[in-house]
Amino acid sequence: MAESSVLSTHVLNVAQGVPAEGVPVELWRLEPAEELVLRTATGPDGRAEGALLPPAAFVPGRYELRFGVGDYFRRRGLGADPPFHDVVPVRIFLAEGQGHYHVPLLCSPWSYTTYRGS
């Protein structure tokens, strides 16, 4: 039996070695038309509270997570003004029955990386 799909995320500030609290996160569905699904922010542990797409709301397709790291680092007095990275977009395809999709963002004012976590 296929596992229900769900989407979650968290953000780590690798410049200071801490969870990135207060990073704005938007989830956009890209097809059939671009649509804002959710707007939230990361908590003290760097995680967006709860699932961005719980099983009951999960619809397979192309999505984009948009992380507002520029404002986050500006508030912390890090990086350039204007910021090198403003909003970091991460495009993903979510399929039904693939279990837990977890998309971590590891970032600094000058770089970022992501992967499919667990």
Automatic annotation (TrEMBL):
<dbReference type="InterPro" id="IPR036817">
    <property type="entry name" value="Transthyretin/HIU_hydrolase_sf"/>
</dbReference>
<comment type="similarity">
    <text>Belongs to the transthyretin family. 5-hydroxyisourate hydrolase subfamily.</text>
</comment>
<comment type="function">
    <text>Catalyzes the hydrolysis of 5-hydroxyisourate (HIU) to 2-oxo-4-hydroxy-4-carboxy-5-ureidoimidazoline (OHCU).</text>
</comment>
<dbReference type="Pfam" id="PF00576">
    <property type="entry name" value="Transthyretin"/>
</dbReference>
<dbReference type="InterPro" id="IPR023418">
    <property type="entry name" value="Thyroxine_BS"/>
</dbReference>
<keyword id="KW-0659">Purine metabolism</keyword>
<keyword id="KW-0378">Hydrolase</keyword>
<comment type="subunit">
    <text>Homotetramer.</text>
</comment>
<feature type="domain" description="Transthyretin/hydroxyisourate hydrolase">
    <location>
        <begin position="7"/>
        <end position="117"/>
    </location>
</feature>
<protein>
    <recommendedName>
        <fullName>5-hydroxyisourate hydrolase</fullName>
        <ecNumber>3.5.2.17</ecNumber>
    </recommendedName>
</protein>
<dbReference type="InterPro" id="IPR014306">
    <property type="entry name" value="Hydroxyisourate_hydrolase"/>
</dbReference>
<dbReference type="InterPro" id="IPR023416">
    <property type="entry name" value="Transthyretin/HIU_hydrolase_d"/>
</dbReference>
<dbReference type="InterPro" id="IPR000895">
    <property type="entry name" value="Transthyretin/HIU_hydrolase"/>
</dbReference>
<dbReference type="GO" id="GO:0016787">
    <property type="term" value="F:hydrolase activity"/>
</dbReference>
